[in-house]
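Integrase zinc-binding domain-containing protein
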Amino acid sequence: MKTLKERYEDSARVAQAWITKRTGFKLEKKLIKDDWLRQTYGDLMNKYQEKGYISKVDPTTSVEQEGFLPLSPVVRNDRETTKGDRVKGILNSDEILQAENYHIKRAQGESFEEDIKRLYRGKAVRSNSVLSTMLPKIDEDGLLRMTGRLSLIEVLPYHVRYPISLPRKHDVTRLVVKQYHEKGNHAVGTNHSLSLISEKFWIIHGREEVREYERNCVVGKRNSVKPATQVMAPLPKQRVRTSLRAFSKVAVDYGEPFFTVQGKRKMRAKRYLC
C-alpha cells in the first residue's frame, strides 16, 4: 500500500508528463507551419545539446512494452479536436493503427522511395531492387506489401496473405523485432521469432535482422549463456599416499553360461561372463 506522499508524487509525475506532451504537441504544430521558427529552434537545441544541458531521445524507445510505436504524438481528426467537441481519454484502436501505419510508411518511404514512386505511376520496380522478387503492391492505406504464394487463400487474414514489407537496419524494423523478441521472454529462438513476425511483416533479410538483435540483447545473452565448467578437486591423500603395483590385487567373477547366435546360423554358442 502506497503512502499519501508516494501517491501524490505519482500523480505529480503523471500530470507533468501530460503537460509536457501537450506542450510539445503544440510546439510541433507551430514548427511545421513556420520555417524560420523551425530553423531557429533546431539551432538552439543543437547548442544546448553541445553544452550538455539536454540529450537527444533515442528514436528506438517505444511508448509501451507491448507496442513498437516510437515516441510520437497521434494526430486526431481536426473535426474531433475542436474545443466544443474534443475527444478525451486514452487512444482507441483505430488511432493506434493510424500511428502505426504512419511510422511504417515513413520507414518504407525512407528506404524504398524510388520503388514506391514507380508503383504509384503504374510501373514495375527496378530490376536491381531488393523488392523485385517480391511482387510488391500499394494497398489502400498507402502501405507497401509483398505478394506471396498465400495470396489466393481467402481463409487467411489479409495481413498474412500480403505481409507489410520492412527495410533492413531501420529503427522501426528494430522496434518490431524487439516487440516479438520480448513477447517470447527473450527465450525463443530465431526461427520462432521470425515465424511470428512473418504473420504480419516481411523484413528484408529478416533472419539477419533478428539475429543481430539477439546478439545485442543483454537479457537474451544472460538467458542463453553456457554454464561454466567446474574445476575438479584433487584426489584425497588417502588414495595416493601408498602406490600399488599394477594387478597386485586381481579377482575374477564368472557368470552363468549364455547362449548366443552369430549371424544367420541356427547353431547356438555357449559363452561365459567374467
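thats it. The first strand starts at residue 137 and ends at 138. The CA atoms of residues 66 and 183 lie 8 Å apart. bye
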